């Protein structure tokens, strides 16, 4: 299975519409991939809080339209990163969009863990309430966004729902890049899953981005890692290694503390 992680910079001098066109062209260049993944909030920038309300859109908005067409043109499964969604009641959410190769919206995920403590996303956006998995033909995807990476309970829930490949779409800052790599590997090891984590490059809203998108196997080995700049990280992996790893080292069956693993993991 081949995945393409598109690590882009969010240029504040570029309009959101121009960025949609640019990102759509990058997705089309990945025709032949089994999965393409984009970063978090790339239309606005994850730290451009002042743009959230201005650029918020419905699930039927311009980003969905552009990314559906890009997925259809390329014939790929596309995790289109996330948008600032404005719900019918006016609440804003950090919402990920996943498209099938025919351009249909296969899944959405409202980010559960909002970053910022007492400012930014944490106070401007509502929290999602439901973990989301997607039945990709090659592997079951667990969908997560940026700050979610720090909360292992979410990933355990995704594994219980059948996840084999964990997606992390992020806008992670450079000053905490060591945490990014460490946590991506930890989530892979503890859940015996592949982790595909893609972030942004450059600097936006005054925050230098970490870049360094990364693919990790179920043993915690780094399969590929990007640099700091714009880059498409292409990685090939065998989803069957998840079941093989869990059989070879069946740690998940020894879960205790009242967290009863499903019988299929035993």
Automatic annotation (TrEMBL):
Pfam families per the UniProt record, alphabetical: CN_hydrolase
Keyword Transmembrane attached: no
GO molecular function: hydrolase activity
Domain CN hydrolase: 1-239
Keywords recorded for this protein, A-Z: Hydrolase
CDD domains the record matches: nitrilase_5 (cd07583)
Family according to the record: Belongs to the carbon-nitrogen hydrolase superfamily. NIT1/NIT2 family.
Protein name, per record: Carbon-nitrogen family hydrolase
């Amino acid at each position: 299975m081949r995945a393409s992680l598109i690590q882009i910079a969010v240029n504040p001098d570029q309009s959101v519409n121009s960025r949609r066109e640019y990102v759509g062209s990058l997705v089309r260049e990945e025709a032949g991939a089994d999965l393409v993944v984009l970063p978090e909030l790339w239309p606005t920038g994850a730290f451009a809080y002042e743009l959230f309300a201005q650029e918020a859109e419905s699930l039927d908005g311009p980003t969905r339209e552009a990314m559906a067409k890009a997925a259809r043109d390329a014939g790929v499964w596309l995790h289109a990163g996330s948008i600032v969604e404005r719900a019918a009641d006016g609440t804003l959410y950090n919402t990920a969009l996943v498209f099938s190769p025919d351009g249909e919206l296969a899944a959405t995920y409202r980010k559960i863990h909002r970053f910022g403590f007492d400012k930014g996303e944490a106070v401007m956006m509502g929290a999602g309430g439901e973990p989301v998995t997607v039945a990709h033909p090659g592997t079951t995807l667990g969908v997560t966004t940026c700050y979610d990476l720090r909360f292992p309970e979410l990933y355990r829930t995704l594994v219980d729902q059948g996840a084999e490949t964990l997606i992390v779409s992020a806008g992670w800052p450079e000053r905490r890049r060591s945490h990014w790599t460490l946590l991506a590997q930890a989530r892979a090891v503890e859940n015996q899953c592949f982790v595909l984590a893609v972030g942004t490059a450059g600097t936006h809203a005054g925050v230098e981005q970490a870049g360094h998108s990364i693919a990790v196997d179920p043993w915690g080995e780094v399969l590929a890692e990007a640099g700091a700049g714009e880059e498409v990280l292409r990685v090939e992996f065998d989803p069957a290694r998840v079941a093989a790893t869990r059989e070879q080292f069946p740690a998940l069956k020894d879960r205790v503390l009242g967290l009863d693993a499903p019988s299929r993991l035993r």
